[in-house]
Specification:
Blueprint lengths: L2 H12 L16 E6 L7 H16 L4 E6 L7 H10 L4 E5 H4 L18 H8 L2 H11 L3 E3 L4 E5 L1 E4 L14 E4 L3 H9 L3 E4 L5 H6 L5 E4 L1 H6 L8 E4 L4 E9 H6 L2 H35 L3 E4 L2 H10 L2 H21 L4
Parallel strand pairs: 1-2, 1-3, 7-8, 10-12
Antiparallel strand pairs: 3-11, 4-11, 5-11, 6-9, 6-10
Helix pairs in contact: 2-11, 5-13
Bound molecules: (2S)-2-hydroxy-2-methyl-3-oxobutanoic acid.
């Protein structure tokens, strides 16, 4: 029902005896929530979130309708985080590293070369480390669903020259997402990082404001970054995931059973989306090469040694503090 007809109905209703006032039509949801994200509709996060929204609508008998706004339609990540806090957007998936501008500990999974593989990632993020982060998120007026969604292991791309060694990064104009940890990481590599929100990355690369960026294969593919980047260095320098966030007031406004269904279905979709991303990791290199990208293998130990020498690990050990750093090392082993 359009806003106009609803208003008309309410006005008309005022003149009618009480029993004649129509309640909302069966097809209108009691709660209509906006869910915003930064990736194109074709990304597994939107595919799986769309499925979850459908199941949630069914399982709640139509009480909650989640409308998806992909691709930063409602604004950059930085803007959308403000809208989420204000309640103008009810739900948002955001990288923990960008969320760290509000919840500092949320960038902890982005410590360079911390997680060896997914066998270390998910037990940590579904376990003690993830709980610690979610606890801090809750203190900031936001609610994080238990299961994180996968962004992936990040790889470096460049239009200017192939990056093979850490020395190749010296002075390199690299786009990083807005997050102190990202800037610190690329400064430690000796690069010249520039913070740019994702919705401006394609044009920043196209106009050579920056010469490179770093993202998982799935993002490089769905955002067509291969059109403006030539070289892809397989660095796996960081694992990154999205927290599925809700504005706390909006979340708590939902009846308990609706909340339970919503969290259950979102978490179920998150687990499926993780499998999608893992599969894409195995298949996308072929298609990115077809699009003209040249793949470069790198020596992770050399990049890691550069970070260590630059004091990256000791700096962030200090910043995160004993408890959080301890939870990270309990999951991945000693980093210092
Ligand atoms: O901004 C990025 O590079 C992206 C899409 O990977 C994140 O959401 C952090």
């Amino acid at each position: 029902m359009s806003r106009l007809s609803r208003r008309t109905l309410l006005t008309a209703g005022a003149a009618l005896p009480l029993f004649a006032i129509r309640t909302r039509p069966a097809e209108a949801a009691e709660f209509t929530y906006k869910y915003a994200n930064n990736v194109p509709l074709t990304h597994p996060m939107n595919v799986r979130a769309g499925e979850a929204a459908k199941r949630i609508k069914e399982a709640t008998g139509g009480r909650l309708e989640i409308q998806i706004f992909p691709n930063n339609q409602l604004g950059s990540d930085t803007d959308t985080l403000s809208q989420l806090r204000a309640g103008a957007v009810e739900m948002f998936t955001l990288s923990g590293l960008i969320l760290s501008t509000l919840v500092p500990v949320a960038s902890i999974n982005g410590v360079g070369f911390a997680f060896k593989d997914y066998g270390q990632v998910w037990p940590a993020m579904d376990g003690a480390l993830g709980s610690l982060v979610r606890g801090e998120i809750a203190k900031r007026g936001l609610y994080a669903m238990a299961k994180q969604w996968d962004n992936g292991y990040r790889q470096m791309t460049s239009s200017a020259k192939p990056i093979k060694t850490p020395e190749d990064l010296s002075g390199f104009k690299m786009r990083v997402p807005p997050s102190p940890l990202w800037t610190s990481l690329f400064k430690a590599f000796g690069a010249a990082p520039t913070s740019i929100n994702f919705n401006e990355v394609y044009s920043a690369l196209q106009t050579h404001i920056v010469d490179g960026q770093e993202n998982p294969l799935a993002i490089i593919d769905v955002a067509k970054l291969y059109e403006v980047q030539k070289y892809l260095s397989v660095t796996n320098h960081m694992w990154d995931g999205f927290w599925f966030l809700a504005n706390k007031r909006a979340w708590e406004a939902l009846p308990a059973d609706v909340r339970e269904i919503t969290e259950r279905e979102l978490n179920a979709s998150a687990v499926q989306q993780r499998v999608d991303i893992a599969k894409l990791n195995d298949t996308l290199s072929g298609s990115l090469k077809t699009h003209g990208m040249e793949f470069i293998q790198t020596d992770a130990a050399a990049f890691r040694a550069t970070l260590k020498k630059a004091g990256f690990y000791s700096e962030w050990q200090q910043k995160f503090g004993k408890e959080a750093w301890g939870a990270l090392e309990a999951a991945v082993g000693s980093l210092a």
